[in-house]
Design brief:
There is one protein chain. The protein has 448 residues and is mainly α. The protein has a domain of 132 residues: Orthogonal Bundle (eoxyguanosinetriphosphate triphosphohydrolase fold). Helices cover 61% and strands 0% of the residues. The protein contains 23 helices and no strands. α2 runs parallel beside α6 and α13 packs across α18. The chain is globular.
């Protein structure tokens, strides 16, 4: 792979891009397209880790995404400066460190856009519905092996790629480079030859319905194909998007846990101090008033240090990244990795397994499986596959008109399933709960 080809401002289906203004690059336009999109706005009411408590502010998917994007921009610019110096032809072609920063910032902003309500438990709930429900098992007999793999392993990354490339979402079509940087797992769900040693093959990044789109961008960017199957090496800037996410959830989840009282101030302080090492100055910390403010101060210092460490690891391995030999998370190679593993252990014990988080996971399973049962059952009934009842027709009419039309126009049970998943995974936590309560007769419209 080479950087001149990897920095491609064209968009899917377009051979050339002629709408660049003097004020914004194509990659900066990507950022604006994402931030003004409806799927991005919905992240405001989607759980990051901790559901919205009354006691104090914690991060939602929206605030998390904004912070990851900020870290990603810094990482991209820092690495970009080194790459532009190393490859003079980039500067000669008009590229600068700001282009690297813009691509990573946009891809980082979008990295969670395909996640369903209730965090990662929402992904598990959708997968469980198809694996375990009678309707799901019947659908298995009607779809291909590759399509079934998509349904029983629902993946927010693939859902995000689908959102950006759905025909009715023309307004957020992204450049090849940003789409590829967004795609942490450049493969389909079903692989005969999965390589577990490659971080990029841990999950998958696109459904069968979008595989031709990924193949197009892979060809345009010169991504290395790993086999005869639908599997490629990552776009190099994907490593920076992943690192930005890793930095934020390592450090900021700990901060949230401390604010909620689940992790003591002293433990959080010492963990962050260990990340800083010799840079930790306790006498300077004591000049900051308030425990929350002190943790926030340490968090900022830690993020800055981890950005520098990740950038160094990237440049040390840049040539192996371009040949596809390097396929590990940057954070697994930084000097602070031992301390970061301690932070994760504490976060698992005191945050991710807290009663509030576990209760939310249970609710998420019940709600999403219940909504899929209602809407997917109603959608299939309208196709004449099963006997349709008045209730099915009523539930079907609750779908937005766009979804009703798309479902009516397709005979594929796989695509009908994906359309229902599109609708339900796009819901906010609060809306999903309220709609579930109404469909199950727990509450009436207008009731709180």
């Amino acid at each position: 792979m080479n950087w001149l080809k990897l920095l491609n401002p064209n968009r899917l289906g377009q051979s050339t891009n002629s709408n660049q203004s003097s004020a914004r690059s194509f990659f900066e336009q990507d950022y604006d397209r994402i931030i003004f999109s409806h799927p991005f706005r919905r992240l405001q009411d989607k759980t990051q880790v901790v559901p919205l408590p009354e006691e104090d502010f914690v991060h939602t998917r929206l605030t998390h995404s904004l912070e990851v994007s900020s870290v990603g921009r810094s990482l991209g610019k820092k690495v970009g400066e080194s790459i532009v110096d190393k490859y003079p032809e980039l500067k000669e072609s008009g590229y600068s460190a700001f282009d690297f920063g813009a691509i990573v910032a946009a891809a980082s902003l979008a990295h969670d856009i395909g996640n369903p309500p209730f965090g990662h438990s929402g992904e598990d709930a959708i997968s469980a519905f198809f694996k375990n429900s009678s309707l799901g098992k019947w659908i298995q007999s009607q779809v291909s092996v590759e399509e079934w793999a998509d349904l029983i392993n629902f993946e927010g990354n693939a859902q995000g790629f689908r959102l950006f490339n759905r025909p009715d979402n023309q307004g957020i079509k992204l450049t090849y480079s940003t789409l590829a940087a967004f795609s942490k797992y450049p493969r389909t769900a079903h692989l005969f030859e999965k390589d577990d040693s490659r971080k990029s093959q841990k999950k998958y990044g696109f459904f069968q319905t979008e595989k031709q789109y990924f193949e197009e961008l892979a060809n345009e960017l010169g991504l290395i194909r790993l086999s005869n199957e639908m599997s490629w090496v990552r776009h190099p800037l994907t490593f920076l998007v992943e690192a930005a996410d890793d930095i934020c959830y390592h450090v900021i989840d700990l901060e949230d846990g401390c604010r909620l009282g689940w992790v003591s101030y002293e433990q959080a302080r010492d963990l962050l101090a260990n990340v800083l090492g010799d840079s930790y100055l306790p006498e300077k910390l004591e000049k900051t008033k308030g425990k929350n403010e002190k943790i926030a101060y340490l968090r900022a210092l830690c993020i800055n240090k981890l950005i520098n460490e990740c950038a160094e690891v990237f440049m040390e391995n840049e040539e192996d990244i371009l040949t596809g030999k390097f396929d590990s998370a940057l954070m697994s190679k930084v000097p602070s990795k031992r301390v970061l593993s301690n932070i994760i252990e504490v976060s698992i014990q005191k945050i991710y397994r807290s009663h509030l988080v576990l209760e939310t996971e249970v609710v998420g399973h019940r709600v999403l499986e219940g909504l899929l049962e209602e809407f997917l059952g109603a959608a299939i009934a309208q196709k004449g596959v099963e006997e349709s009842s008045k209730k099915d027709l009523t539930v079907f009419r609750l779908l937005p008109e766009t979804y009703q039309e798309l479902i009516t126009d397709t005979a594929s049970l796989y695509e009908i399933s994906l359309l229902c998943i599109d609708y339900i995974s796009g819901m906010t936590d609060r809306y999903a709960i309220n709609l579930y309560r109404k469909l199950k007769g727990i509450s009436l419209p207008g009731m709180k």
